[in-house]
Amino acid sequence: MAIIKEDGTRQDIGIYVDDSDVDPCIPSIVAFAQNGELLVGEEALRQAVVNPHSTIYEVKRLMGRSYYDDPDHKFVYRVRPTLKSHSLKGVRAAVEIPCGKFRKKLVQPELISALILRHVADHAQRYLGVAVKDVVISVPAQFDDAQRKATMDAGLIAGLNPVKIVNEPTVAAFAANSLTEKLLAANDEIDNSEEEKQRHTIWAVVADIGGGTTDYALMQIQGSYYKVITTDGDKTLGGRDIDIRLTEVMTRILEEKYLGFDLTSSEFQQKLRIECENAKIVLSEKQQYSLTVEYVDQDERTENLPLEHLLTRVEFEEYISGIVEAMIKPLHSLLTRAGGSITETVGQGIKAENIEDLYLVGGTSHIPKLKELLLSYFIIKVQ
């Protein structure tokens, strides 16, 4: 979360948790607590283990979607395995939330997204000391018109004025300090003639791979001017899918290691999913991770005990190889398609070796195997 000042510079907005200023990022998680309290962001994440049935994440995968868009409802599974999607006002997707012991209610994705946007705006107002009304909201590059409209509606429901909906990789490129420095440096080196602009054209690829989506953008940089030439991606593939895949694998491994233990409860699966996410983060820096999840026997036949497994980076990369390869496919498609579009735009084709900069954005892009595969397309240094 950040603001753009009148002089064009960016200022990150700190998020206050327990009266301390922390990283300017808010988890896109909403929870309806058992006591009726509404929780958003870090607070929702903290209670996810004890309240898995009413904790929702990655809701943007349902934005503007029909219940029948995916016959197998895989996008519903990815949003939260224990929640179901139902038709609302015809075929619109919604999330089912427990409401008391015997009642349930349907909540539209736009409302859940609005709660997150309102939470972000409230933090910004607290930080800045002024009212926040006008906002620019970023969405995956592959969002269609219905999904963009749903995002705009969420902003309006939140009491905000969505000035514009922009693609996430475009915003990522604009926000990257390294890219900003490149733009300023290039602007000092060249004049404004068309000949000089063509001579100093920089081609860059932005890979924005976060928790819920995978986006790529090919950008043309000429001095202080930059343009998105083409984009590609997968709006239903991200780091969350790696967490789910690793959770499935670790469930099988722990079941074989600890025979007779029932590891299918929602509470245990939520604990394991959080621990698998921690493993993913740690293994981006280290070669092994001691995965530990406390097992609570629901029948109290045995004492609570930690279930453990030493997970190596080699094992981790093997388990998620299929997902990583799927994340690379849109890049191949983008570069294949870019040759024709660039030929038409500036009179010259472009190949992977013409790309000067690759900007990696999003936590998932830190995974070494994914970074290695991305770099294999280019003869450049990663930013």
What features would you describe in this structure?
This protein is α+β, with helices and mostly antiparallel strands and 383 residues long. The chain has 2 domains: 29-168, Nucleotidyltransferase, domain 5 (2-Layer Sandwich); 194-382, Nucleotidyltransferase, domain 5, CATH 3.30.420. The protein has 12 helices and 18 strands. Strand 8 and strand 9 (92-99) form a beta hairpin.
Domains, number: 2
Order of neighbouring strands in the sheet with most strands: 15-14-13-18
Shape-level CATH architecture of the largest domain: 2-Layer Sandwich
Quote the average pLDDT: 78
Strand content: 25-35%
Radius of gyration: 22 Å
Largest sheet data: 4 strands, mixed
State the distance separating the first and last CA atoms.
Answer: 21 Å
* CATH level 1 class label of the largest domain: Alpha Beta
SS class:
alpha+beta
**Overall 3D shape:** globular
CATH level 4 superfamily of the largest domain = ATPase, nucleotide binding domain
The low-confidence parts are: 77-89, 188-192, 340-348
CATH-assigned fold name of the largest domain: Nucleotidyltransferase, domain 5
Provide the helix percentage.
Answer: 25-40%
Number of helices: 12
Helix and strand succession? EEEEEEHEHEEEHEHEHHHEEEHHEEHHEH
